[in-house]
Write a structure and sequence with these properties.
By secondary structure, the protein is an alpha/beta fold. It has six helices and seven strands. This is Rhodanese-like domain-containing protein.
Length: 130
């Protein structure tokens, strides 16, 4: 019986999982959804960050990654029971990571299409990486 209840809890959680593909925009910022910037520190220094975003590197400079490390940092900085957004340089990396997080963990994730490049064109506030 306990296994059946656990199974249904997991299934119910996954039913709420969703990836929302949307460009970085002032409308999205107004919703105050946390934005997690998954780029590398070098990229953050080069272009800055969307104001208020949370830098947590997923892929390193060589394309490697550590899911456990990322998840620890994500859960420490973001309430993953609520929707959050992912941003990278152009949206390529987030288009891979967002579905993984939604399918594996049941999260609702905004994939910010076009990444920081679209954020610049949309006139979003960009701040230097410290």
């Amino acid at each position: 019986m306990k296994k059946l209840i656990l199974f249904w809890l997991i299934v119910a959680g996954l039913l709420h999982a969703e990836v929302i593909n949307a460009p970085a925009s002032k409308t999205l910022l107004a919703k105050q959804i946390p934005i997690v910037d998954i780029r590398t520190p070098g990229e953050w220094k080069e272009t800055g960050l969307v104001k208020g975003s949370i830098p947590i590197m997923f892929f390193d400079e060589k394309g490697g990654y550590n899911v456990d490390r990322f998840m620890l940092q994500l859960k420490a900085k973001v309430d993953t029971t609520k929707p959050f957004a992912l941003i990278c340089r152009t949206g390529s990396r987030t288009s891979m990571l967002a579905p993984f997080l939604a399918q594996t963990y049941g999260y609702t994730v905004y994939n910010l299409q076009g990444g920081i490049m679209t954020a610049y064109r949309a006139g979003l506030p960009i701040v230097p990486y410290q």
